[in-house]
Input
Amino acid sequence: MARKPIITLITDFDTVDHFVGTIKGVIYGINPDVEIVDISHKVASYDIFDGAFTLAQSYRFFPADTIHLVVVDPGVGTSRRPLLARSMNYKFVAPDNGVLSLIYEREENVEVRHITSDHYFLNPVSATFQGRDVFAPVAAWLSKWVEVDKFGDPITDYTKFTSPRPKKVGDNLIKGVILKIDKFGNIITNLLPEDLPQLFAENPPPFKIIINQQEITKLNLAYSMGKPSELFAIVGSNGYLEVCTNRGSAAKILNVNRGVEVGVMLGTPSPAVPESA
Amino acid sequence: MARKPIITLITDFDTVDHFVGTIKGVIYGINPDVEIVDISHKVASYDIFDGAFTLAQSYRFFPADTIHLVVVDPGVGTSRRPLLARSMNYKFVAPDNGVLSLIYEREENVEVRHITSDHYFLNPVSATFQGRDVFAPVAAWLSKWVEVDKFGDPITDYTKFTSPRPKKVGDNLIKGVILKIDKFGNIITNLLPEDLPQLFAENPPPFKIIINQQEITKLNLAYSMGKPSELFAIVGSNGYLEVCTNRGSAAKILNVNRGVEVGVMLGTPSPAVPESA
Amino acid sequence: MARKPIITLITDFDTVDHFVGTIKGVIYGINPDVEIVDISHKVASYDIFDGAFTLAQSYRFFPADTIHLVVVDPGVGTSRRPLLARSMNYKFVAPDNGVLSLIYEREENVEVRHITSDHYFLNPVSATFQGRDVFAPVAAWLSKWVEVDKFGDPITDYTKFTSPRPKKVGDNLIKGVILKIDKFGNIITNLLPEDLPQLFAENPPPFKIIINQQEITKLNLAYSMGKPSELFAIVGSNGYLEVCTNRGSAAKILNVNRGVEVGVMLGTPSPAVPESA
Output
């Protein structure tokens, strides 16, 4: 293979301490001919869903054969298993705590293995930094094209959560949830255009997005189309409906965070204009 | 060309989300043999001048043929044009919003093109993340030595602001402005030694730098030459006059930020010693 | 040498400004075939011990011949000397302010040179950014296998501090100190298992760790074994005794920072059971 293999890193380690650098040292010590790419080290501490979502937003933009290493690992040092998952195009190395759940949802035919071959580890393995001692070395050996079956046997009882899906509540109301607040304060919901096809039809009905008792009634095509402090919806770069404001933080204006409910009412009849009139 | 091409990144994306990692995935997918270097992802959000200044401070320290990718793009999704600029030694890829203004000032014979060849883009192009869909792929193809004229035609009506220059107000007063507060709290002004040659002459006159009604009257050769909490001036690493304090934040002491006026009075006569005496 | 040389970076520059990117530009300009790895740019500003400790925690996880560049340099622009140190496996480039002290302690036969060959510098050398003008170019030339004796002569009077060691106070009390609070709020002390062998024996005596007048009496094998808000001790990934809590910040609970005393009392006799009884 002429192409240099890529290992990406997603962790909740932040970049203040030596952790990320040390992991890279371990990887380069095993495979000097690898490209290491930071996706994010600012996953919220211990937050498995945030790690899973960060991975889901980015993994498919990497070339085939990329190895995605995800270390959000509040159970480090316990018997939670280290996993190696493989889909058609990618490999994933992560603890068995659900952080690969969105991969199991999105990729077909994912084969998951329990990594047991501890001769690939940095021994003695510490109880507190297995990103360094277990996950990084396994990713590095994988990047040297060691066969996946050398690391351990397939399992099917791995931990998996189901990502929250919007719910229809009657004909005109759909309820979703905030998945993430991004750096700019944009509110990423779990609503996809396919959940709200009417909104994207030729003559969309009036609608209300309700978050924290406030109503958003406008859909824009670009962030900068909004007036100052005006809240509006937009379809984000991964397809999710976002609520945002031009050059400001929608999350601050609405005072919301991840997990808050997002309601969408379609075709709201105006009570001031009775139909019989 | 034996040398691996370099693409640098300047954005206001921060490193909390997946954005920067995703951009790198897209680049490596197109050109696995490129070196990607982060300059800063902490440009103030939507702040075109801050992006321009970050680029101006760093671009010329990179080897010839480096491609500088600048994505500070509050107008993403609108009709603002994506640009490819080329000077003798560097290429620049950025939105047409003025973020390359300091390059137009400093580099000679900059050729600017409107990028229109959308077969180089990641299609379908999103309305909210054209760093991923437009700018990164163009930079990646450029790093594979695709000719600049393949991307679009030259234009001359690109957006350009003029960087603020100090003004002489009478013989002994010059007025400048704060361009940036750096990480340490050092205050970077737009005053260059050539604006204040007397200060750097063999027998410099007394002087006063006035910021937020406070006076700085000392010029030091090194940060550590100041006494605790003492404010003094120094010539910074890009030639600008800075106001700083030893191991502390001058910006906090003076309670100032970018854009605040900086006055310099030269040869201030001492009112206590009348000339006729 | 087939292996690409590695230069690691430890600084207090943060990643907000252009500083780190500029340093990388300078390095790639001299040696395009080098791997640059960030260890941390968030060393506390001007904090030589924090830089030394970050280096000590990470340097040995890198492959042999790695060049570690450490720029925590409050004396930049003064006559403090730039140093090149070499141990059996590594090279270090740093200012002579003690930031290599833990290397002098841990590595055998460290040879330290005063870098004086200014033709390797980026001239003219600025007074405020010698990371760019002195340290980065020297590291880059070293990565091209320029012999260390080309940079300057050996010295023995370099600055060195002694890292704080625990003290025995009577038979059952040992006093240490907090070396670092990590990103998660874990409290890293300077106590090693060899300072407290009884604690790690087959039948360990009861013990009390006393920090800021609070007592910790439990030792766990993994972070997640603690109950919510419970404080406990653990042996960290570099061997130091840490005080932590499950999914939370022990440092916040105890309201402590670096430098605070840590007492350990072993085999505390229960006062309620008089020995003569």
User: Anything to note?
Assistant: Confidence is low (pLDDT under 50) at residues 273-277 of chain C. Chain C touches chain B through 30 residues (CB under 8 Å). Residues 10 and 55 of chain C are 7 Å apart (CA to CA).
